[in-house]
Amino acid sequence: MADDSGTLTMSTENAALREALAAEHVAVWGYGVVGAGLGPTGRGRATDAETAHRDVRDQVTALLAERKANPVREQAAYELPFPVLSAVDAAALAVVLEDGTAAAWVRVLDQAVERTTRELAVGWLSGAEVRAVGWRGAAGKKPVTSALPGLPKK
């Protein structure tokens, strides 16, 4: 959030990056559950998504460390929003994970002061939405696309 004067600073940007890093930790952990729920035939797609989130997580961790801003650490486990009892549930969980990271990257866009940070956030937000489109289809969710990914639904 902006400082008391409403001005964005590196501190506000770093705070938003830490929130995004926390969302990436959740996504990395959650894709283990997604992969297990999809079974052997669908596991490759979940592994690809997990790898993408690991890459983002590692880049954000390095960026925060470079700035001497303490990166958020991952937790041992996270609470699932619902039981994953089928492949459709697994795909629905993947949608939740992608939507969660998208919302975090929108927050970074709102709080960023550096152009390079905004460029990274746009790229990572786009990646999350592309993955979410595929998962929404697999989960039977309509519409499969979001006009404004990462923003709250009305």
How would you describe this protein?
This protein is mostly helical and 154 residues long. It has a single domain, classed as Up-down Bundle (Ferritin). The chain is globular. Helix 3 (87-111) runs antiparallel to helix 4 (115-139). Helices cover 67% and strands 0% of the residues.
Q: What structural category characterises the helix and strand content?
A: mainly alpha
Query: Quick one: how many beta strands?
Result: 0
Number of domains: 1
Characterize the main sheet: none
The CATH homologous superfamily is named: Ferritin, core subunit, four-helix bundle
Describe how the helices and strands are arranged.
Layout: H1 10-38, H2 43-66, H3 87-111, H4 115-139
Notable characteristics:
single chain; mainly alpha; 154 residues; Ferritin
Task: Give the structure's gist in a few sentences.
This protein is mainly α and 154 residues long. The chain is 67% helix and 0% strand.
